[in-house]
Amino acid sequence: TYVVTENCIRCKYMDCVEVCPVDCFYVGENMLVIHPDECIDCGVCEPECPAEAIVPDSDDKAAEWSELNRQYAQEWPNITRKGEAPADAKEWDGKPGKKALFDP
Ligand code: SF4
Ligand code: F3S
Q1: For bias kind Basic and acidic residues, which ranges apply (predicted)?
Q2: What is the pLDDT of residue 13?
């Protein structure tokens, strides 16, 4: 399965939702997550993310995010259409310490 990680926070470009064939993205206040039981592991979303926030669960970066994706995919609403990214998305791209801003 694929996992949305820290750099999605406050970037939230949403290009990912447009390409997912099974619509398994869920949306929170400032980031998205993937439902691990619905993701078919196609990998199509990974190169679409301008923030490079999506990784396979085998990636080191996924470790601390796998459980959060599972948990919040069950609490947040499904999202299938790209909305407007935050106006300052670019400024947040790559900023360290964004995990502290995770906002469920
Ligand atoms: Fe959707 Fe494929 Fe990405 Fe999984 S890997 S979230 S199925 S686009
Ligand atoms: Fe987040 Fe990238 Fe999707 S920033 S909303 S995972 S396109």
Answers
A1: 81-96
A2: 98
42-96 residue pLDDT tens? 999 999 999 999 999 999 999 999 999 999 999 999 999 999 999 999 999 999 9
For the record, the structure tokens of 87 come out as 């106006």
Q: Is the dihedral of CA 81, 85, 86, 89 positive or negative?
A: positive
**Would residue 94 count as lying in a domain?**
no
Residue 54 CA to ligand 1 centre (angstroms): 9
Ligand 1 atom 1: residue of nearest CA: 20
Is 20 within a domain?
yes
Tell how far the Cα of 66 is from the centroid of ligand 1, in angstroms: 14
Residue in this structure with the two tokens 């398994």, named with its chain if needed: 24
Identify the residues whose C-beta falls under 6 Å from ligand 2: 4, 8, 11-16, 32, 49, 51, 53-54
Question: Is residue 88 assigned to a domain?
Answer: no
- The domain tally of the chain equals 1
Cβ of 40 closer than 6 Å to ligand 1, yes or no, is yes
Q: What is the domain extent for residue 46?
A: 2-82
CATH number at residue 44: 3.30.70.20
d(CA 3, CA 87): 24
Q: What is the pLDDT of residue 69?
A: 98
